[in-house]
């Protein structure tokens, strides 16, 4: 690929319950990243309350953008384009970020770049912070495992913005299964970190939970594991037996991580990739990171913890490559290769 043009991208992310803005230079060097979390607000509901989330975005969006520009030591006039999450996500939350981005782009006469939220997660592995030597960017062809609350899928990338979906979950996503299992075990919201914390005190061999076999080798299914936990909990409750939460959490987590690792490594061998990339909220899971980094067959790219969950740095990175490739080719950014939507 020839040299891409230099550009600074201001990005906005508001797909769920995080109001975020970031500025990135040339798709990799992060100049600023601000995230206003609503986790404490939604914890009382046991999950994200969509209407509350959208109202909080309205209150936070302008201060967050201002903080991101201030931290980057830039004015609005000094950014080259505005990137924004266009979906998937909560409709009310998305519209706040989209309207803010549209207003900025129109007022500044700057390009507006819509970024798929999932594509953004993939590009979190390209991001690095100032003050450190630039690490080598992920090398193509690579296999991207996306694991989040709503999605679990394997995508083959042969170049920037070029994807081929190999497989996806047939039912529950890995993150969704973690959240539902946390509720079954009486663990607090958010479920993923709670399961991880409980599992640290448990025995992953205490229970043997099923690992589903799918017709297509690169598809996933986690509803069976979740149902097995439910049945075990109900059986113990009926017998009046105390539920060994730590052991059950550890055994469940082991089954999920084992499934993700095995299928990803098999697909990586099948398609002869150079590297593996892990992205999405579940990529913050300690057991998952240790399992993938512990194998020696493939180099594994996993973003820093701060960029595993929702943030605007990842949207800025993906937005840069859409801007730069469109600018170089003279193509409208909206007709560049798009993320394969579920």
**Model regions low in confidence, pLDDT < 50 over at least 5 residues:** none
What's the main sheet like? 6 strands, mixed
Helix percent reads 40-55%
CATH architecture of the largest domain: 2-Layer Sandwich
- Radius of gyration over alpha carbons? 20 Å
Please give the CATH class of the largest domain: Alpha Beta
Order of helices and strands: EEEHHEHEHEEEEHHHHEHEH
CATH topology grouping of the largest domain: Nucleotidyltransferase, domain 5
Distance between the termini: 28 Å
Task: Give a description of the structure.
The chain is an alpha/beta fold. 42% of the residues lie in helices and 19% in strands. The protein has helices at residues 39-43, 50-72, 91-108, 117-123, 174-184, 191-199, 223-239, 245-271, 286-294, 313-329; strands at 8-13, 18-25, 29-37, 81-87, 112-116, 128-129, 142-147, 152-159, 162-168, 275-279, 299-301.
Helix-strand layout with pairing:
Blueprint: E1 8-13, E2 18-25, E3 29-37, H1 39-43, H2 50-72, E4 81-87, H3 91-108, E5 112-116, H4 117-123, E6 128-129, E7 142-147, E8 152-159, E9 162-168, H5 174-184, H6 191-199, H7 223-239, H8 245-271, E10 275-279, H9 286-294, E11 299-301, H10 313-329
Parallel strand pairs: 1-4, 3-6, 4-5, 7-10, 10-11
Antiparallel strand pairs: 1-2, 2-3, 7-8, 8-9
Helix pairs in contact: 2-3, 4-10, 5-6, 5-7, 5-8, 6-8, 8-9
């Amino acid at each position: 690929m020839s040299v891409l043009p230099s550009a600074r991208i201001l990005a906005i992310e508001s797909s769920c319950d995080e109001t975020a803005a970031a500025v990135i230079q040339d798709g990799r060097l992060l100049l600023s990243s601000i995230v206003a979390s609503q986790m404490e607000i939604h914890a009382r509901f046991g999950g994200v309350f969509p209407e509350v989330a959208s109202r909080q975005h309205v209150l936070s969006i302008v201060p967050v953008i201002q903080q991101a520009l201030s931290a980057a030591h830039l004015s609005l006039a000094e950014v080259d384009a505005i990137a924004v999450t266009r979906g998937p996500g909560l409709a009310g939350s998305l519209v706040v970020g989209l309207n803010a981005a549209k207003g900025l782009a129109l007022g500044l006469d700057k390009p507006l770049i819509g970024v798929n939220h999932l594509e953004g997660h993939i590009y979190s592995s390209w991001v690095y912070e100032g003050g450190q030597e630039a690490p080598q960017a992920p090398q193509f062809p690579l296999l991207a495992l996306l694991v989040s609350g709503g999605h679990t899928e394997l995508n083959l990338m042969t170049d920037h913005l070029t994807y081929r979906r190999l497989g996806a979950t047939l039912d529950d996503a890995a993150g969704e299964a973690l959240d539902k299992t946390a509720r079954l075990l009486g663990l607090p919201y958010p479920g993923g970190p709670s399961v991880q914390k409980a599992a640290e005190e448990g025995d992953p061999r205490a229970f043997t939970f099923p690992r589903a076999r799918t017709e297509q080798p690169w598809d996933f299914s986690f509803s069976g594991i979740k149902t097995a936990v439910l049945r075990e909990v109900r059986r113990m409750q009926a017998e009046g037996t105390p539920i060994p939460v730590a052991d059950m959490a550890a055994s469940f987590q082991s089954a999920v991580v084992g499934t993700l690792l095995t299928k990803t490594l098999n697909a990586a061998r099948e398609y002869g990739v150079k590297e593996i990339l892990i992205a999405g909220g579940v990529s913050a899971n300690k057991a998952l990171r240790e399992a993938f980094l512990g194998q020696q067959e493939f180099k594994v790219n996993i973003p820093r913890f701060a960029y595993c969950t929702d943030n605007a740095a990842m949207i800025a990175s993906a937005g840069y490559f859409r801007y730069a490739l469109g600018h170089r080719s003279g193509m409208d950014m909206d007709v560049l290769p798009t993320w394969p939507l579920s």
